[in-house]
Each structure stands twice: as C-alpha cells, then as structure tokens.
Give the backbone structure.
Amino acid sequence: MAKEPQDRDPVAAAVGLLSRRDHSREELKRKLRSRGFVVSDIDKAIERVDEWGYLNDARFAEGFVRYRSGRGLGPIRLANELRERGVSSDLIRQTFAEAEQDWFALCLEVCERKFGNPVPTDFKARAKVQRYLAYRGFDMEQIRYALESLRG
C-alpha cells in the first residue's frame, strides 16, 4: 500500500529521481510537487541535494544537449526544451557556446538520412524538407547549407 505524501521523505524522493537521471532544478520541483509534497519541504529537499552535489543545472543542460542533439535535434528546439525545463537563458547560451557540436553538419546529416541525396528540387518537396528541418530545431542558415550541399 502506498504511503501518503506527508509520511514520505522529500529528500529521499529527490535523490531517487536524481539517481535515475539528471534533472533541472525546476523540473525536480515540479516532479516533487506532483507527488504531493508541500513547497517548503520541496525547497529544503532541493537545497539538501544541491549541497550534496546531486543537482546541477549546468551538468543537466550539457547532458541534455549532448543526448538530444545525438537524436538529430537542432539548437533552436533544444534551447526551447531547456527553457521549458526551467534552465536560465544565460546557462543555455553558455551550454551552446561550450557544446562541441557542428550544427550545420548535424542538419546535413538529418536531412540526408530523412530525404536522401540529392534532396528533391521541386518547390513543394523542398518546402516539406525545410519544414521538417525547422521542426527539428535548425535555423534557416543551417537548412540552406544542408539543401545546397545535397542539391543534385
């Protein structure tokens, strides 16, 4: 039988969540709140796991960008997803500045994998390719580079 939220330890819940994967500070707060813990207990738990070094937004952002870019997502989408998870704009900028990712090459790779080489040249098909790459989070400069590189 599940215990009531008041009977459980928010620090143990936070450590349990962080043992599975890194979370941003805001993401961890939301998860603890959804489990029924009160704000004051959540703040104390966050402070405790932060003191222990288990919670680190910079480490979370770096791992998030590395993993999700490896899945073919571009910088615009990744930045938006980090913002949704409560990562500060300054930290997002710093993470992308330090990321060892060639976004142009990644856009080209994603485009080639999805649409082949050469990419379609008629207007309707080319627009479809652009929409797909924009949805994946690439900017127009990166998309233009991929399309020009794969032109038949």
Notes: The mean pLDDT is 93. The two ends are 64 Å apart (CA to CA). The chain is about 70% helix and 0% strand. The chain has three domains: 7-51, 57-98, 103-149.
